[in-house]
Structure formats: structure tokens, C-alpha cells
Amino acid sequence: MELDEMKLAWQQLDRRLTEQASLHRLIHRGQGMDRLRRGLRPLVWGQSVQMVFGVAAMLWGISFWTTHLGAVHQMACGIVVQVFGILMVAFAGWLLHQLQGIDYAAPVLDIQRRLARLRTWRVQVEAPVFAVLGSVVWVPAMLMLIQYDFDQAGDDYWNHAPELAGHLVFSGIVSLLLVVFAYWLVRRAGHRRWLENNFAGSAVQKAETMLEEISRFEQE
User: How far apart are CA 153 and CA 184, in angstroms?
Assistant: First the structure.
């Protein structure tokens, strides 16, 4: 009878230890997911700011080309800025949609897969597109600002300095080539992973680290 009681006591102790371990894992996961959510907030704020700037650029481009319908070169500048603004809004919207879609109660592997898609998007799509466009979009923006001065006199800068556009376009091409050269140089130096991490952003890197810690703890 004493042996049976001892076995029962051991079983109850084992069950309590198992329950405590499960509760500890749940608490640790909950705390980890709270840190993960907070860690991704800067990315949400950054994309929200990008969306605001994108809307501003889009409206600026629209207001410019719709008031310069008589000049193709001026319309082209406004349309380019408008398209750049649309891309800023669209890219930020897609990223915010992905972040809002994270289910923090889902298995860690599912969250890691979503973050992996987000990283791939930022590294392979968003960063190259904005690196290329960002190095040249200042050219039409500068021409628009110059034209505003001539608008006050009811004139067109093209009538006085047509070579100005050529100089700025050349500068834009040089700027683009410098970006491409810098990218090639960084990869040549063996810092591709460092570059990709910078493209992904510190918030994504921290989130990946947190998820790895939670995954290791759950497997222990």
C-alpha cells in the first residue's frame, strides 16, 4: 500500500512539474510575442511616414502636370514624381498589410515564414526599386522647382536654358551609376549579408532573433 501511495505521489508530482513547465513556456512565449510586437512598431511607423510622403509626392506631381498641360517636358516631370509617390504608397501599404497579417498566436514557424517573405520583398524588390528611382527622381523634382520660378513670369525655362535639363539628366545618370557601383563594391568586398540586413531593416533583424530564441526555448 505504501508503494502504491509513493507511485501515486510521484505521478502527481510529475504531472504538476509538466503543468508548470507548460505554463512557463506559455508565459515565456507571451512575453516574447509582446517584445516581437513592440519591436516591429518602428517598422510600422516608418512605413506610415513613407506613405504620407508618398501621398504628398503623388499630389505634387498631379498638381504640377495638370497645370502644365501645354508642355510635354513639364508634364513628364510631374508624371514621374506622381508615379514615384504611387510606388511609395503601394510599397508601404503592402508591407503594412503583411505586418497586420501576423498572427502572434500562430506557431513560430508560420511567423518566421511570413517574416522571411517580408525580408525577401524588402531586399529583392523594395530596396533595388527605391535605390534606382531615388537616385534619379530628384532630377524631375528639381526641374519642377525651377519651372515654378518661371511660372511667375508666365515663361518656360526651356526657352532660356534648354541645356539645363540635359545637365540634370546627366547628373542623374551619374548618380545612378554611383549607386550601382557602390552596390557592386560592397558585394565584391564580401559584405552581401551586411547589405541585405541593412535593406531588411533593424526591426526585421531583431524580430528574427526573437523568434529564434522563442523557437529554441520551446524545443528545450
Answer: 46
